[in-house]
Amino acid sequence: MQPLAYRMRPTKIEEIVGQQQLVGPGKIINRMVKAKLLSSMILYGPPGTGKTSIASAIAGSTKYAFRMLNAATDTKKDLQVVAEEARMSGTVILLLDEIHRLDKTKQDFLLPHLENGRIILIGATTENPYIAINPAIRSRTQIFEVKPLTPEDIATALDRALEDPDRGLGKLKVKLDSDAKNFLTTNTNGDLRSALNALELAVQSTDTSDDETIHITLPIAEECLQKKALVTDKDGDAHYDVISAFQKSIRGSDTDAALHYMARLLDSGDLQSVMRRLLVIAYEDIGLANPPACQRTVSAVTAAEKLGLPEARIPLADVVIELCLSPKSNSGIVAIDSALTDIHDGKIGEVPDHLKDAHYKGAEKLGHGVDYKYPHSYPNDWIKQQYLPDRLKNASYYSSKETSTYEQRFKEQYQKLLNAQRKD
């Protein structure tokens, strides 16, 4: 029997779960299908997010023949079979998985068929196509990023699988507890394939009750997904609560709490949230109080990304401890938010003439750049002149904190320059 995730692949574009930025009404792929003006494309994103589903749905909606190959394992001969089918019977949509593994021989064979439109190539990859895919292929395709599915998207797909009597589990009497369902939607990191595989295993391996019901509880879901539900609630907010607690623990300099919450996130497999949140924390909460800590956070996140779990926990633990014990300052985020408030309130003003671009003929006649003073031509590489628009010339956004010697020096320099700038 084919796996549930395979059977539940959409047959038309309206059945696609998630990715509405691409397939929703009026969006680019939807428009291509509606007009039957398909072009070759590359879909890239994490596993289980719908790349194959989009290709299958496009084929089903357009009624074109649909073939699937793998760039790493299938041969040039397999590509020749697809090309011959396209020559004999018309357009073929070819889903080429792992397209970043396409070698030059296969690529050279494919290119003329992409040019004449007989083969509509849909390449699928988890790698960044701007780095991993040959420019010759890239230049002949449109590139679309496929995002991880939300818990709501996965819940919708699980409901469909439970209700569909033909392709899904609708012929069985399944009771899926709300906490078990929530666990499957929030602990698969946007990977629908993993959620459907776990659901199918749970249903097929659970004994029926006297009334023929298959009752899927949280412990069963945990066993079938092989992840423990460290935190669950009916609304699915607990995962984000842990992320929030993680940042607030670092901000509050509680090393043990920060390590605890990071361990919960890593144990659930959510490495991406940890890395992203650490970058935010470094610049939002430590910032100018300890700029080298921000640099070391970037290095730790880069190392974690290359290592993957479980080894990624090591550089991340080091930097979490450092961020917790570091002096803190939020003066950077406060400063930019203060500037943005002025922008949103309409306090903008015209760029002073002497700062305007003067790299074109006629700029001097307009007075653009004429009176600009080049700071490097003056002592200490500084000269007094107005940079802010007239209506904001006395604005001051940066308010320093004296939590470290770094920011004390920044404060002294900022105040010195501000006083010199405003001195009559």
From TrEMBL:
Give one GO term, molecular function aspect: DNA binding
Which Gene Ontology terms describe the biological processes this protein takes part in?
Answer: DNA synthesis involved in DNA repair; DNA-templated DNA replication
UniProt keyword annotation of Plastid present: no
Q: Does the keyword Mitochondrion apply?
A: no
| Source domain of life | Bacteria
> What family does the entry list?
Belongs to the AAA ATPase family. RarA/MGS1/WRNIP1 subfamily.
Q: What is this protein called?
A: Replication-associated recombination protein A
Question: What organism is this sequence from?
Answer: Pediococcus argentinicus
Q: What is the lineage of its organism?
A: Bacteria, Bacillati, Bacillota, Bacilli, Lactobacillales
